Amino acid sequence: MENYGRSKNGAEAQTVLNCIDLSSPDIQQSVSLLKQACLDCGFFYVVNHGISQEFMEEVFSQSKRFFKMPLNEKMKVLRNEKHRGYTPVLDELLDPDTQVRGDYKEGYYIGVEVPEGDPESEKPFYGPNVWPAPDCLPGWRETMERFHREALEVAKAVARIIALALDLDADFFDKPEMLGQAIATLRLLHYEGQISDPSKGMYGAGAHSDYGLITLLATDEVAGLQICKDRDAKPQLWEDVAPMKGAFIVNLGDMLERWSNCIFKSTLHRVLGTGRERYSIAFFVEPSHDCLVECLPTCKSDKNPPKFPPIKCETYLSQRYKDTHADLNMYNKQQT
Protein backbone atom coordinates (compact mmCIF):
# COMPACT_ATOMS: atom_id res chain seq x y z
CA MET A 1 0.00 0.00 0.00
CA GLU A 2 2.95 2.33 0.44
CA ASN A 3 5.24 3.84 -2.14
CA TYR A 4 8.66 3.54 -0.50
CA GLY A 5 11.45 5.95 -1.31
CA ARG A 6 12.20 9.28 0.27
CA SER A 7 9.66 12.00 -0.59
CA LYS A 8 10.33 15.65 -1.41
CA ASN A 9 9.33 16.44 2.17
CA GLY A 10 12.05 14.21 3.60
CA ALA A 11 9.75 11.36 4.64
CA GLU A 12 10.58 7.73 4.02
CA ALA A 13 7.33 7.17 2.12
CA GLN A 14 3.94 8.56 1.22
CA THR A 15 1.30 6.58 3.03
CA VAL A 16 -1.98 5.49 1.44
CA LEU A 17 -4.94 5.94 3.78
CA ASN A 18 -8.30 4.18 3.71
CA CYS A 19 -11.17 6.38 2.55
CA ILE A 20 -14.54 6.30 4.35
CA ASP A 21 -17.56 7.49 2.35
CA LEU A 22 -20.17 8.78 4.81
CA SER A 23 -22.84 8.67 2.10
CA SER A 24 -22.32 4.95 1.44
CA PRO A 25 -25.31 2.71 2.27
CA ASP A 26 -22.91 -0.20 2.92
CA ILE A 27 -22.24 0.45 6.61
CA GLN A 28 -20.40 -2.85 7.04
CA GLN A 29 -17.86 -1.90 4.40
CA SER A 30 -17.36 1.46 6.12
CA VAL A 31 -16.89 -0.29 9.47
CA SER A 32 -14.38 -2.70 7.95
CA LEU A 33 -12.34 0.04 6.26
CA LEU A 34 -12.36 2.20 9.38
CA LYS A 35 -11.40 -0.69 11.66
CA GLN A 36 -8.47 -1.60 9.43
CA ALA A 37 -7.31 2.04 9.48
CA CYS A 38 -7.64 2.31 13.26
CA LEU A 39 -5.65 -0.88 13.80
CA ASP A 40 -2.99 0.15 11.29
CA CYS A 41 -2.22 3.84 11.77
CA GLY A 42 -5.23 5.64 13.27
CA PHE A 43 -5.57 7.93 10.22
CA PHE A 44 -8.10 7.84 7.36
CA TYR A 45 -9.92 10.11 4.91
CA VAL A 46 -13.64 10.93 5.17
CA VAL A 47 -15.47 12.04 2.02
CA ASN A 48 -19.08 12.92 1.16
CA HIS A 49 -19.44 14.23 4.70
CA GLY A 50 -22.17 16.75 3.97
CA ILE A 51 -20.18 20.01 4.16
CA SER A 52 -20.17 21.56 0.70
CA GLN A 53 -16.92 22.40 -1.07
CA GLU A 54 -18.20 25.93 -1.57
CA PHE A 55 -18.63 26.43 2.16
CA MET A 56 -15.27 24.83 2.95
CA GLU A 57 -13.62 27.35 0.62
CA GLU A 58 -15.47 30.17 2.39
CA VAL A 59 -14.13 29.00 5.77
CA PHE A 60 -10.58 28.96 4.39
CA SER A 61 -11.10 32.40 2.88
CA GLN A 62 -12.31 33.82 6.20
CA SER A 63 -9.41 32.16 8.02
CA LYS A 64 -6.93 33.85 5.67
CA ARG A 65 -8.61 37.21 6.26
CA PHE A 66 -7.89 36.92 9.97
CA PHE A 67 -4.28 35.77 9.71
CA LYS A 68 -3.43 38.50 7.22
CA MET A 69 -4.29 41.17 9.79
CA PRO A 70 -1.40 43.00 11.53
CA LEU A 71 -0.02 41.20 14.59
CA ASN A 72 -1.12 44.00 16.96
CA GLU A 73 -4.73 43.47 15.80
CA LYS A 74 -4.51 39.71 16.26
CA MET A 75 -3.04 40.15 19.74
CA LYS A 76 -6.22 41.98 20.77
CA VAL A 77 -7.93 38.56 20.73
CA LEU A 78 -5.06 36.63 22.37
CA ARG A 79 -6.16 33.27 23.74
CA ASN A 80 -7.42 33.20 27.30
CA GLU A 81 -7.20 30.60 30.05
CA LYS A 82 -10.16 28.78 28.45
CA HIS A 83 -8.16 28.33 25.25
CA ARG A 84 -10.29 30.63 23.11
CA GLY A 85 -8.74 33.12 20.71
CA TYR A 86 -5.42 33.74 18.96
CA THR A 87 -2.22 31.74 19.50
CA PRO A 88 0.92 33.46 18.15
CA VAL A 89 3.83 31.78 16.35
CA LEU A 90 5.98 29.78 18.83
CA ASP A 91 3.17 29.78 21.44
CA GLU A 92 2.84 26.00 21.35
CA LEU A 93 5.67 23.53 22.05
CA LEU A 94 4.46 20.03 21.20
CA ASP A 95 7.72 18.09 21.32
CA PRO A 96 10.08 19.59 23.91
CA ASP A 97 12.50 16.67 23.59
CA THR A 98 13.45 17.57 20.02
CA GLN A 99 12.23 21.15 19.45
CA VAL A 100 14.58 24.07 20.09
CA ARG A 101 11.70 26.57 19.96
CA GLY A 102 7.92 26.39 19.70
CA ASP A 103 5.89 25.53 16.60
CA TYR A 104 6.25 27.83 13.58
CA LYS A 105 2.51 28.25 13.24
CA GLU A 106 -0.19 30.60 14.49
CA GLY A 107 -3.73 29.58 15.31
CA TYR A 108 -7.17 30.56 16.54
CA TYR A 109 -9.29 28.52 18.98
CA ILE A 110 -13.11 28.49 18.84
CA GLY A 111 -15.05 26.24 21.23
CA VAL A 112 -18.64 25.47 22.15
CA GLU A 113 -20.26 28.78 23.12
CA VAL A 114 -21.20 28.81 26.81
CA PRO A 115 -22.46 32.25 27.98
CA GLU A 116 -20.72 34.00 30.83
CA GLY A 117 -22.78 33.51 33.99
CA ASP A 118 -23.85 30.00 33.02
CA PRO A 119 -22.63 27.63 35.80
CA GLU A 120 -21.02 25.46 33.11
CA SER A 121 -18.78 28.36 32.12
CA GLU A 122 -16.89 27.96 35.41
CA LYS A 123 -15.43 24.66 34.19
CA PRO A 124 -12.19 24.48 32.19
CA PHE A 125 -12.75 24.49 28.39
CA TYR A 126 -16.31 25.85 28.71
CA GLY A 127 -17.14 29.53 28.34
CA PRO A 128 -17.78 32.32 25.84
CA ASN A 129 -15.66 32.50 22.71
CA VAL A 130 -13.34 35.39 21.88
CA TRP A 131 -14.25 37.03 18.58
CA PRO A 132 -12.64 39.68 16.35
CA ALA A 133 -14.62 42.93 16.19
CA PRO A 134 -17.53 42.53 13.72
CA ASP A 135 -16.62 45.73 11.84
CA CYS A 136 -13.10 44.37 11.40
CA LEU A 137 -14.13 41.02 9.88
CA PRO A 138 -17.83 41.13 8.94
CA GLY A 139 -19.44 37.69 8.69
CA TRP A 140 -16.41 35.98 10.24
CA ARG A 141 -18.07 34.82 13.43
CA GLU A 142 -21.18 33.55 11.62
CA THR A 143 -19.06 31.50 9.22
CA MET A 144 -17.04 29.89 12.01
CA GLU A 145 -20.10 29.14 14.15
CA ARG A 146 -21.79 27.43 11.22
CA PHE A 147 -18.68 25.38 10.43
CA HIS A 148 -18.39 24.37 14.09
CA ARG A 149 -21.98 23.06 14.05
CA GLU A 150 -21.57 21.18 10.79
CA ALA A 151 -18.18 19.68 11.68
CA LEU A 152 -19.59 18.37 14.97
CA GLU A 153 -22.27 16.48 13.04
CA VAL A 154 -19.56 14.95 10.84
CA ALA A 155 -17.61 13.93 13.94
CA LYS A 156 -20.68 12.27 15.45
CA ALA A 157 -21.25 10.31 12.23
CA VAL A 158 -17.64 9.10 12.31
CA ALA A 159 -17.93 8.22 16.02
CA ARG A 160 -20.92 5.97 15.25
CA ILE A 161 -18.83 3.96 12.80
CA ILE A 162 -16.00 3.79 15.36
CA ALA A 163 -18.45 2.46 17.95
CA LEU A 164 -19.53 -0.33 15.58
CA ALA A 165 -15.87 -1.12 14.84
CA LEU A 166 -15.36 -1.58 18.61
CA ASP A 167 -18.39 -3.95 18.83
CA LEU A 168 -20.43 -1.32 20.67
CA ASP A 169 -23.90 0.05 19.95
CA ALA A 170 -23.75 2.68 17.20
CA ASP A 171 -24.97 5.40 19.57
CA PHE A 172 -22.42 4.60 22.32
CA PHE A 173 -20.59 7.93 21.94
CA ASP A 174 -23.83 9.92 21.55
CA LYS A 175 -24.48 9.86 25.32
CA PRO A 176 -24.78 13.27 27.08
CA GLU A 177 -21.57 12.70 29.05
CA MET A 178 -19.72 12.04 25.80
CA LEU A 179 -20.51 13.76 22.50
CA GLY A 180 -23.93 14.89 23.67
CA GLN A 181 -22.05 17.66 25.48
CA ALA A 182 -18.76 17.48 23.64
CA ILE A 183 -15.76 19.73 24.16
CA ALA A 184 -15.52 20.41 20.43
CA THR A 185 -12.79 22.86 19.48
CA LEU A 186 -12.27 24.40 16.06
CA ARG A 187 -8.73 25.58 15.45
CA LEU A 188 -7.72 27.62 12.44
CA LEU A 189 -4.03 27.19 11.61
CA HIS A 190 -1.55 29.15 9.49
CA TYR A 191 2.03 28.16 8.68
CA GLU A 192 3.85 31.21 7.35
CA GLY A 193 6.30 29.38 5.08
CA GLN A 194 9.19 28.68 7.43
CA ILE A 195 11.29 25.75 6.16
CA SER A 196 11.47 23.09 8.87
CA ASP A 197 14.80 21.51 9.77
CA PRO A 198 14.50 18.51 12.11
CA SER A 199 18.30 18.44 12.51
CA LYS A 200 18.03 21.89 14.12
CA GLY A 201 14.83 21.19 16.07
CA MET A 202 12.67 23.44 13.88
CA TYR A 203 9.15 22.27 12.98
CA GLY A 204 5.86 23.67 11.71
CA ALA A 205 4.28 21.51 14.39
CA GLY A 206 6.36 19.19 16.56
CA ALA A 207 5.68 15.48 16.86
CA HIS A 208 2.61 14.79 19.00
CA SER A 209 -0.53 12.75 19.33
CA ASP A 210 -3.90 14.45 19.73
CA TYR A 211 -5.58 14.46 23.11
CA GLY A 212 -9.22 13.56 22.64
CA LEU A 213 -11.54 11.21 20.78
CA ILE A 214 -11.00 12.15 17.12
CA THR A 215 -9.71 15.07 15.06
CA LEU A 216 -11.07 16.21 11.70
CA LEU A 217 -8.50 18.06 9.58
CA ALA A 218 -9.20 20.02 6.41
CA THR A 219 -6.13 21.26 4.54
CA ASP A 220 -5.27 23.32 1.51
CA GLU A 221 -3.25 21.73 -1.31
CA VAL A 222 0.12 22.30 0.39
CA ALA A 223 1.72 19.16 1.84
CA GLY A 224 3.40 19.03 5.24
CA LEU A 225 1.56 16.52 7.44
CA GLN A 226 3.54 13.40 8.34
CA ILE A 227 2.76 10.37 10.49
CA CYS A 228 4.95 7.89 12.37
CA LYS A 229 3.32 4.48 12.72
CA ASP A 230 5.92 3.16 15.18
CA ARG A 231 7.03 5.75 17.72
CA ASP A 232 9.44 3.27 19.34
CA ALA A 233 11.41 2.59 16.15
CA LYS A 234 15.04 3.79 16.05
CA PRO A 235 15.20 5.86 13.95
CA GLN A 236 11.57 6.84 13.59
CA LEU A 237 10.24 6.50 10.04
CA TRP A 238 7.96 9.30 8.86
CA GLU A 239 5.44 9.07 6.02
CA ASP A 240 3.74 11.93 4.18
CA VAL A 241 -0.06 12.20 4.20
CA ALA A 242 -1.26 13.73 0.94
CA PRO A 243 -3.93 16.46 1.02
CA MET A 244 -7.24 15.41 -0.58
CA LYS A 245 -9.55 18.14 -1.83
CA GLY A 246 -12.95 18.12 -0.17
CA ALA A 247 -11.99 15.42 2.33
CA PHE A 248 -11.31 15.47 6.04
CA ILE A 249 -8.20 13.69 7.23
CA VAL A 250 -9.37 12.02 10.44
CA ASN A 251 -7.13 10.74 13.20
CA LEU A 252 -7.75 9.12 16.55
CA GLY A 253 -6.81 10.78 19.83
CA ASP A 254 -5.26 9.54 23.04
CA MET A 255 -8.58 9.19 24.86
CA LEU A 256 -9.82 6.75 22.24
CA GLU A 257 -6.57 4.81 22.57
CA ARG A 258 -7.21 4.63 26.32
CA TRP A 259 -10.85 3.64 25.80
CA SER A 260 -9.82 0.90 23.36
CA ASN A 261 -6.98 -0.36 25.57
CA CYS A 262 -4.46 0.49 22.81
CA ILE A 263 -6.26 -1.66 20.24
CA PHE A 264 -6.90 1.47 18.18
CA LYS A 265 -3.93 3.76 17.63
CA SER A 266 -3.40 7.42 18.48
CA THR A 267 -0.55 7.99 16.08
CA LEU A 268 2.36 10.38 16.38
CA HIS A 269 2.24 13.09 13.70
CA ARG A 270 3.94 16.38 12.87
CA VAL A 271 4.03 19.14 10.26
CA LEU A 272 7.16 20.06 8.33
CA GLY A 273 7.22 23.46 6.69
CA THR A 274 8.32 23.30 3.05
CA GLY A 275 8.82 27.00 2.41
CA ARG A 276 5.25 27.41 1.14
CA GLU A 277 2.52 29.15 3.12
CA ARG A 278 0.00 26.59 4.38
CA TYR A 279 -3.49 26.80 5.92
CA SER A 280 -5.40 24.06 7.69
CA ILE A 281 -8.52 23.75 9.83
CA ALA A 282 -8.52 21.26 12.71
CA PHE A 283 -11.62 20.21 14.63
CA PHE A 284 -10.80 18.47 17.90
CA VAL A 285 -13.57 16.39 19.47
CA GLU A 286 -13.40 15.35 23.11
CA PRO A 287 -16.09 14.01 25.45
CA SER A 288 -17.73 16.22 28.05
CA HIS A 289 -15.80 17.75 30.93
CA ASP A 290 -17.11 15.18 33.45
CA CYS A 291 -16.75 12.06 31.28
CA LEU A 292 -14.79 9.21 32.88
CA VAL A 293 -12.52 7.64 30.26
CA GLU A 294 -11.98 3.99 31.13
CA CYS A 295 -11.34 0.77 29.27
CA LEU A 296 -14.33 -0.34 27.18
CA PRO A 297 -15.88 -3.71 28.07
CA THR A 298 -15.26 -4.99 24.52
CA CYS A 299 -11.55 -4.17 24.74
CA LYS A 300 -10.48 -6.06 27.86
CA SER A 301 -10.21 -9.65 28.97
CA ASP A 302 -8.38 -11.78 31.51
CA LYS A 303 -5.46 -11.97 29.10
CA ASN A 304 -5.69 -8.29 28.16
CA PRO A 305 -6.50 -6.28 31.32
CA PRO A 306 -6.88 -2.48 31.21
CA LYS A 307 -3.55 -0.72 30.56
CA PHE A 308 -4.63 2.66 31.97
CA PRO A 309 -6.51 3.71 35.11
CA PRO A 310 -9.81 5.60 34.60
CA ILE A 311 -9.36 9.36 34.27
CA LYS A 312 -11.77 12.28 33.96
CA CYS A 313 -11.66 14.15 30.69
CA GLU A 314 -11.20 17.47 32.54
CA THR A 315 -8.10 16.21 34.35
CA TYR A 316 -6.48 14.73 31.27
CA LEU A 317 -7.12 17.68 28.94
CA SER A 318 -6.09 20.34 31.46
CA GLN A 319 -2.70 18.72 31.98
CA ARG A 320 -2.04 18.20 28.26
CA TYR A 321 -2.83 21.83 27.40
CA LYS A 322 -0.72 23.07 30.31
CA ASP A 323 2.22 20.97 29.14
CA THR A 324 2.19 22.26 25.56
CA HIS A 325 1.21 25.96 25.68
CA ALA A 326 3.14 29.02 26.81
CA ASP A 327 2.23 30.63 30.12
CA LEU A 328 -0.14 33.54 29.39
CA ASN A 329 1.73 35.68 31.92
CA MET A 330 4.56 35.83 29.38
CA TYR A 331 2.40 37.92 27.04
CA ASN A 332 1.19 40.18 29.85
CA LYS A 333 4.83 41.00 30.69
CA GLN A 334 5.59 41.77 27.03
CA GLN A 335 2.73 44.26 26.85
CA THR A 336 3.60 46.18 30.05
Automatic annotation (TrEMBL):
Gene3D superfamilies membership: B-lactam Antibiotic, Isopenicillin N Synthase, Chain
A GO molecular-function descriptor: dioxygenase activity
Pfam families membership: 2OG-FeII_Oxy, DIOX_N
Domain of life: Eukaryota
Keywords of this entry: Iron, Metal-binding, Oxidoreductase
InterPro entries cross-referenced by the UniProt entry: DIOX_N, IPNS-like_FE2OG_OXY, IPNS-like_sf, Oxoglu/Fe-dep_dioxygenase_dom
Family indicated by similarity: Belongs to the iron/ascorbate-dependent oxidoreductase family.
Protein name (database record): Fe2OG dioxygenase domain-containing protein
Organism of this sequence: Citrus clementina (Clementine)
Taxonomic lineage from the root: Eukaryota, Viridiplantae, Streptophyta, Embryophyta, Tracheophyta
